[in-house]
Amino acid sequence: MVLFINKNTLASSLEAVQLEAGSGSVASYIPALQQADPAAFGCVVHYGREKVKAGDTDIYFTLQSISKVISLALALMDKGSEEVFSKVGMEPSGNPFHSIQTLEKEKPAKPLNPMINAGALVVADMLQEKEPDAAARRFVRLIREITSNPEIDICFETAASERNHSNLNRALCYFLKSHGVIENDVEQVLNTYINLCSVRVNSCDLARIGSVLGRDGQDPETGEQLIPAWTAEMVTTFMVTCGMYDASGSFAVKAGIPCKSGVSGALLGSLPDGTGIGVYSPPLDSHGNSAAGTRLLEKLSSDYQLSIFSGRFR
User: Fold this and answer.
1) Where are the transmembrane segments (predicted)?
2) Residues comprising the binding site?
3) 208 and 279 both lie in a single domain
4) Residue 128 phi, psi (nearest 5)
5) Is 65 a catalytic residue?
6) Which residues of the chain have pLDDT under 70?
């Protein structure tokens, strides 16, 4: 099999989407993210040893909520699914990613899924070791292996900016701690969560992560098993049901691509044939997803039958 698209057609798709994407706003609640260029727009499609790029694909940005995909994979590898899902659920929330509302309703307080902030904080708690920075170091090592990019690291400037403006996440942490869901020190857990969100990547890195997930955890070039197949399958399932926050359902209908978004404007897409897609466009829609990036994936899905629910993958 060969890639479904070439550089010229991908560039044409970007250009078409730029003209029709409409409005969006760069994330403002984390000051470091406000510095992003709102005109930046890039996409990489990765399959096997092939890679097609268009637009601003060399720009580095932070993972933000895309980190939840890898942190969940780590927790599943460490603890197994039974223990992980004893503390965090599997259901879409239908609420904004930072909502505390459902935690107050659930008895006992249990985040609905690991792709919202409360759930990711519980996952970060599960990753804790004796050394405060050990979890973040393990996360970075795994990301470097998956992307084959040894230069990937935490952007400490972004982490510091986020740490100074994390009152809501801190509140979620203390709420969960008060109900016995989080076991470790709140500030240590929060610091881990922030550091994972602040790992810097580019669109090429995202596309390779998507390719590894789509190949059941195998390196697309060497075939090495980087993540257990059952783990890759589980996290990509969450990308379908919960990866686009409270727009996950509509995105599944319109695009049908397993996808995880981040408020940096990044999108990570993964297809069952081993195709990975990385997109970056900072202006966000009302759900906190990249406005132009979301529209691009919808267009690519429509033009090339990429939905996992289409005949292409049956």
Assistant:
1) none
2) 65, 117, 162, 169, 193, 245, 263
3) yes
4) -65, 145
5) yes
6) 1-2, 21-22, 94-108
